[in-house]
Amino acid sequence: MIRRLKQADAAVIESVLGRIPNFKSSEISVAMELVNITAFNPDQTDYHVFVYEHDNSVVGYYCTGMRPLTDGTYDLYWIVSDPESPVKGVGSALLSHAEEFVISNNGRWLLAETSSKDDYAGTRRFYLKNLYSIIAEIRDFYSVGDNLLIFGKFFRNNKPKG
Q1: Whose CA is closest to 38, among 50, 27, 26, 25?
Q2: Rounded mean pLDDT of 13-36?
Q3: Does residue 161 sit within a domain?
Q4: Residues spanned by the domain of 117
Q5: Phi, psi of 37 (to 5 degrees)
Q6: Among candidates 50, 22, 21, which has minimal Cα distance to 34?
Q7: The pairing of beta strand 57-66 with beta strand 2-4
Q8: Whole-model pTM above 0.85?
Q9: Quick check: is 113 in a domain?
Q10: What's the pLDDT tens digit per position in 71-130?
Q11: 76 with 100: CB under 8 angstroms?
């Protein structure tokens, strides 16, 4: 089941993030900042966090929000599945849900940024498998030799449901 974030989920998400070998503590801090803003400030509208729950346990989540100064471009800030989860396909289910969320809010683009480092090869394959294209690359962005890759998917028929 995919549902909106609850306050109690924040600690679980932090634990899941800690099990991802690629994430540095600084990256976990940034991810948790967005989770905590969403969890503890229900009136904010900048970030939307949804969790994948299986057997009453959170096994993944994503965070998206509209890119400032646009009228239909969304950023996928984080998408994470617990590497210890027995459930397969969590990431793809979360990504599909994020796309539906964007489309239902009249979005045209969903963008996701990642690193060019070898450690992120699986992440890049994930986006390509889900029909995202590399729409931009900035060399030496994160550090020398670590490029920023921006993946995107354009939704032509973004008519809201209902």
Answers
A1: 50
A2: 95
A3: no
A4: 2-154
A5: -60, -45
A6: 50
A7: unpaired
A8: yes
A9: yes
A10: 999 999 999 999 999 999 999 999 999 999 999 999 999 999 999 999 999 999 999 999
A11: no
Lateral strand order in the sheet of 57-66? 2-4, 48-54, 57-66, 73-81, 109-115, 146-154, 133-143
What is the total count of domains within the chain?
1
Q: How many CB atoms are closer than 10 A to CB 30?
A: 13
Structure tokens at 4: 């909106």
The tens digit of pLDDT for each residue in 67-86 reads 999 999 999 999 999 999 99
CA distances from 52 to 7, 60, 155, 160 (A): 15, 5, 23, 23
As a three-state string, the secondary structure of the chain is CEEECCCCHHHHHHHHHHCCCCCCHHHHHHHHHHHHHHHHCCCCCCCEEEEEEECCEEEEEEEEEECCCCCCEEEEEEEEECCCCCCCCHHHHHHHHHHHHHHHCCCCEEEEEEECCHHHHHHHHHHHHCCCEEEEEEEEEEECCEEEEEEEEECCCCCCCC
